[in-house]
Amino acid sequence: MNITVFEPTMEDVSGIVEEVWTSFLGADLVVVPEGLVEVPAGEHVTAVISVAGAWEGHLMIDASPETAAAIAAAFMEVDQSDVTEADVTDSLGELANMVGGFIKSLAPSPSTLSLPLVLRGHSRASTPESHRVCSAVAVWRDAPVTFTVYAGGHA
Amino acid sequence: MKILIADDSRVMRQIVSRTLRQAGYDGHDIVEATNGAEAFDLVQQESPDLVLSDWNMPEMTGIELLNALRGSGSTVPFGFVTSEGSPEMREKAEAAGALFLIAKPFTADSFRDALEPVIG
């Protein structure tokens, strides 16, 4: 039995992230490898989306609550003060949908894309029985947004 | 003209609506559905001239919606606006009767290119 090993690269992730930012947030951002930018501890918002089928993997997006709210405000073209928690959940989920959908399009088929899940807390979410494939940090308005792809396991 | 936008993300429905205006399609009535099942009912009730649908939605996916519409005899012009823009998905969309598939993220130009042959 041939098993196709698929491992998206940081360049794959950064390309689609830059496209989303340019198309919908009207802004340039810098994407760097994880480790070059300090990601502060504390509360954060995490969006998770999964691909299942010929390839199994997950995408996690992490941002501080303030950065997540800024993303929502930029998507919606409103003042950040007008953004609700539901808007943040919606926006981060849709961001995961776009980046996750692109990763799925690169992965072996057939596969399906899950609906996104958005979590809030101080602990990092984890995906049992999976390994980290790549990670990229997008720096936008001096704040990091981390994109991490895992392969295998279930979210 | 009436356009139905089906997407479980309110933010994305807003972006689609905004992009329609930016593409020159302003002044149209916009009807919104949060999932495929709701969109199916709204097509019967509102008789839109065009459906713009996400693919991945709860209750009923976009492809299930299109199949249900065609199965019910509806010939409403239908296009996908989805994060899943692979050649495989485009083939599935076309086979089911979609007129186009706009991949997210999109621009006003990509909207205009897809919609002009359909609604002018």
Polypeptide structure, described:
- The complex is a heterodimer of chains A (about 160) and B (about 120).
- Chain A is an alpha+beta fold and about 160 residues long.
- Chain A has helices at about 10-25, 65-75, 85-105, and strands at about 30-35, 45-55, 55-65, 110-115, 115-120, 130-140, 145-150.
- Chain B is of the alpha/beta class and about 120 residues long.
- Helices cover about 45% and strands about 20% of the residues of chain B.
- Chain B has helices spanning about 10-20, 35-45, 60-70, 85-95, 110-120, and strands at about 1-5, 30-35, 50-55, 80, 100-105.
- Chain B has a five-stranded parallel beta sheet, sandwiched between helices.
- In chain B, helix 1 (about 10-20) links the parallel strand 1 and strand 2.
- In chain B, helix 2 runs parallel beside helix 3 (about 60-70).
- Chain B is globular, with a radius of gyration of 13 Å.
- The model of chain B has no long low-confidence stretch (mean pLDDT about 95).
- Classes of the chains: A alpha+beta (about 160), B alpha/beta (about 120).
